[in-house]
Amino acid sequence: MRFPSLLVTLSAVTLAYSQHCTQPRQRQEWRTLNDDQKHAYLDAVVCLQNLTSNGYHDGAKSRFDDFVATHQALSDEIHKTGQFLAWHRYFMKVWEDALRSECGWQGSLSYWNWSIDVDAGEFDKSPVFDPDTGFGGNGADQAHKNAGPFNNLTSLPDWDPQAQTGGGCVKGGPFAHYTLNIGPGTLKREHCLTRAFNPSTFSGITGQHVHDTLAQYPFESFRLKLEGDRHTSGWDTHDGGHLAVGGEMSNVYSSPNDVLFYAHHAMLDSVWAQWQSANSTDRMYQISGPSSVNDDTKQVTLDFMLPMTGLSDDVPVRNVMDTKGGFLCYIYV
Ligand SMILES: *[C@@H]1O[C@H](CO)[C@@H](O)[C@H](O)[C@H]1NC(C)=O
Ligand SMILES: *[C@@H]1O[C@H](CO)[C@@H](O)[C@H](O)[C@H]1NC(C)=O
Ligand SMILES: *[C@@H]1O[C@H](CO)[C@@H](O)[C@H](O)[C@H]1NC(C)=O
Ligand SMILES: *[C@@H]1O[C@H](CO)[C@@H](O)[C@H](O)[C@H]1NC(C)=O
Ligand SMILES: [Cu+2]
């Protein structure tokens, strides 16, 4: 009897699963997409920039601005807190869904594995910066580099402003001439997309650093290591990646103005998914951390509602813990 009952159990499990997430979308590394796939994504983003705002946030003119405005409004809750990974995972789902449903895109979000570029000593030559099949390169050289409030929120003892290059408006690529309306920082005014590459934070995004991050346990240590702990010096993957690109990306409020934000955060999300799958029974539903920077007393739990300020419904953290759980349906390849 052992064999048939095992079969029944297996098929019941498979069935339950298949009703939720049969064909997970595959999130690939940016450089593994072909040129048509790259252009399809970039075109879909331009489409979102052309669509009119849903009107939930003052100052937002386009659907693209809506995403930046939501992130800007929530910045003090969703960074350096237990919400960080779950919130950004959900935000990327909303982004991916909007590109598909409103702009006819058929693809799946892709990620930027910066460790490939940094470990090769060729950050500037990364395919993500290609003017045709990427997001454009560094900002034009200018003396004033517009360092964003990542600098403002933390003491950043190891950040070297002198190491920055560029600093002005991004010169090439599909977003060079787009006028941003949300930001920079907490402001809402028209400006261009800036970048200021800064090698002084590359140490946070090496393959070795990802390896060290994955070795952390439990979730509390992992999330602090991945995002960067305000109380320790040195770079971690989240802040290191934002500050390596610099300019708008270095701004904790308005960084989604740089479309690379999504490729960077998808990479962080893939590291989290990898950490979870190292022992799913134990790790899949581990979550912890304060719910806001200003209030250490309320902890994030699986029932904690992730806010989305009208961009989409607020949902409980539980919904986004498993990337194949049904509410979400994707894997990293
Ligand atoms: C976006 O709008 C611009 C200017 O109106 C237009 O040239 C372009 O074709 C539009 N692109 C997309 C993808 O909708
Ligand atoms: C990123 O690239 C490194 C170096 O090739 C590789 O070891 C690692 O598995 C990659 N990580 C992801 C998430 O793709
Ligand atoms: C720096 O932080 C202060 C206080 O949190 C804020 O008022 C200010 O707008 C921030 N600066 C920038 C450039 O965003
Ligand atoms: C996974 O976690 C469970 C629960 O903590 C534990 O019993 C099990 O030994 C772990 N498996 C591995 C392969 O580490
Ligand atoms: Cu963020």
TrEMBL record:
Q: PROSITE patterns per the record?
A: TYROSINASE_1
Please indicate which superkingdom the organism of origin belongs to: Eukaryota
Q: A single Gene Ontology molecular function, please?
A: oxidoreductase activity
- Pfam families documented for this protein: Tyrosinase
InterPro entries recorded: Di-copper_centre_dom_sf (IPR008922), Tyrosinase/Hemocyanin (IPR050316), Tyrosinase_Cu-bd (IPR002227)
UniProt cross-references to SUPFAM superfamilies, sorted A to Z: Di-copper centre-containing domain
Q: Which residues constitute the signal peptide according to the record?
A: 1-18
Q: Which UniProt keywords apply?
A: Copper, Metal-binding, Signal
Transmembrane segments in this chain: where?
none
Ranges for domain Tyrosinase copper-binding come to: 79-96
Q: Which PANTHER family match?
A: TYROSINASE FAMILY MEMBER, TYROSINASE-LIKE PROTEIN TYR-1-RELATED
| Protein name listed in UniProt | Tyrosinase copper-binding domain-containing protein
Species source reads: Tetrapyrgos nigripes
